[in-house]
Amino acid sequence: xxxxxxxxxxxxxxxxxxxxxxxxxxxxxxxxxxxxxxxxxxxxxxxxxxxxxxxxxxxxxxxxxxxxxxxxxxxxxxxxxxxxxxxxxxxxxxxxxxxxxxxxxxxxxxxxxxxxxxxxxxxxxxxxxxxxxxxxxxxxxxxxxxxxxxxxxxxxxxxxxxxxxxxxxxxxxxxxxxxxxxxxxxxxxxxxxxxxxxxxxxx
Length: 203
What we know:
Distance between the termini: 56 Å
Number of domains: 2
Strand content: under 5%
Oligomer: single chain
Shape: elongated
Radius of gyration: 21 Å
């Protein structure tokens, strides 16, 4: 048993495990904690363990999966072995184990993710308006410049609702507007937004 846990710690970097199970880890190694409502990333992902500075959750890869899926340490170890194809044990694993999701954690993490996606898109449209603005009256509009003119006001409104709106407004977007954010996220993936950015003025 100890051999299995040791091998998992040695073979599986904590950042890889966190990302595999759906966490978005930023460049500083932080992610929104899945174990409590977390508006600002407070879960630090180290190479061999994790620690949440918000709720105090702490442990290695096996502990993380046990907590995330609500199973025993041994079941978590078997799941890691199965999911990463390590073949360290021949013990049967119940693949139907599902992640334990706290509805409030899911809601707050979605708000944080939606705000980030909207902010990135609005910053990109500012960049497009600056760099693709027509230089001559008869010059055809660049598609990205046209997109920014069409979409800026609408997505600015959504951003303000999600960031500054009432709790009722935020939950309305969470219940009925998630598809809009999902489409926007796909739009972001279609275009490289990592170049020079023109920041919007603070509201």
